[in-house]
Amino acid sequence: xxxxxxxxxxxxxxxxxxxxxxxxxxxxxxxxxxxxxxxxxxxxxxxxxxxxxxxxxxxxxxxxxxxxxxxxxxxxxxxxxxxxxxxxxxxxxxxxxxxxxxxxxxxxxxxxxxxxxxxxxxxxxxxxxxxxxxxxxxxxxxxxxxxxxxxxxxxxxxxxxxxxxxxxxxxxxxxxxxxxxxxxxxxxxxxxxxxxxxxxxxxxxxxxxxxxxxxxxxxxxxxxxxxxxxxxxxxxxxxxxxxxxxxxxxxxxxxxxxxxxxxxxxxxxxxxxxxxxxxxxxxxxxxxxxxxxxxxxxxxxxxxxxxxxxxxxxxxxxxxxxxxxxxxxxxxxxxxxxxxxxxxxxxxxxxxxxxxxxxxxxxxxxxxxxxxxxxxxxxxxxxxxxxxxxxxxxxxxxxxxxxxxxxxxxxxxxxxxxxxxxxxxxxxxxxxxxxxxxxxxxxxxxxxxxxxxxxxxxxxxxxxxxxxxxxxxxxxxxxxxxxxxxxxxxxxxxxxxxxxxxxxxxxxxxxxxxxxxxxxxxxxx
Length: 525
Description:
Elements: H1 3-39, H2 43-62, H3 68-80, H4 90-116, H5 118-125, H6 131-144, H7 147-163, H8 168-172, H9 175-187, H10 195-218, H11 233-263, H12 270-305, H13 309-346, H14 353-367, H15 370-385, H16 390-414, H17 416-438, H18 447-475, H19 482-506, H20 510-524
Helix pairs in contact: 1-9, 1-12, 2-6, 2-7, 2-11, 2-12, 3-7, 3-11, 3-12, 4-7, 5-6, 6-10, 7-10, 9-10, 11-16, 12-13, 12-14, 12-15, 13-14, 13-15, 13-18, 13-19, 14-17, 15-17, 16-17, 18-19, 19-20
């Protein structure tokens, strides 16, 4: 495949995935609007978000797009399937079914444990919380416990679909959880304990799993219980990649449980506010990472398998550079319009102006982790392509101890904001460690990438300063209702975008030229 054709194919895939994810994120945004309207930032929303972190470990973090099950499936099966138009061989099907069978057995057991012992689990996770908080959270976890099994199975399905370059379902199906929540809450409005919120999450997750099945079966991968390839070399390779990655992601999730522990003793609604800020942060971050890294990860795996390390380094640089370029713009705009944006999105019903202020301030702190965040996840994908998940695991293990250390210092002084501060520090440390190990896998020069990044940061700072004063200026003339606030956000983000692109062109940032050419091409067409 020629270089230009390959670049064009990746760009088209990234664009298509970005559109799909944007739709899914919009549905997720509507879900948050509905939840905030009914529950605000109080004990019921705290209980739900505490309880949801258990099934979320599987359905979002481990089993989601980019999670260990997805990554292990792509890394191994992309090397075993040379022809994506034909049905899989009998060997590949049996290997896939063995992977499914082992996964089903392990996570069915974990789901049963969550159903039987939800009170003990939630007591352990939020030991500093009130009895009422623990009781409500335990009920929510019991309802949502089947998602623990479904999440892991979906990760395998996502992986095989992405391997065959089927990007639609893996990226759009997570919106079914949001749709389930919205539908149930609208139908059953009177819900003082959040039971319908947990039930809507379960129904959405079941639908999310069901819609994957026909597409996977159409590719030739049915679900048959078998352990015939348990001792196979490729299955061993799956476990060697999956287990450390699983432990790495699980340990990473332990960082969230540590945050839950420290926040449970803070004021009511603090955990919910942190959750909203995180989800707003994940809107651009998830869009960026998934759109660019999902099509690149199978390419990384294939190029590494063919020992084409020069091309691997080139695509890694382009991918990370693109992420940095867009991330600097997002940081600028979020810093300026966060209060207006959150007020437009969430400030109604039980979600008060005080809630807006707290979420906006937490979001500002978290936003500074965006650059190391996108680099960390990019470096992790590249290490996975080398079948190395041990380094991410050790790095995540170190992060746990750092999380306890920084939380114990910062939460005492800054409350819920201290948790956000520790997240930024640890994300930066993780990015540095993972990046340092890339050079042990292949020859790679970081200096050109970081020189561009330094220019992007300076341009981003200049754009933020100019944009801030511009926003302050138009606030004098455009104020009042939600339409006026929305207009301020649209105008400000547009002006900051023009300033950012103009300065990037002036300082010869290649990603700006590429973006402008693509935009011109669209309008000319």
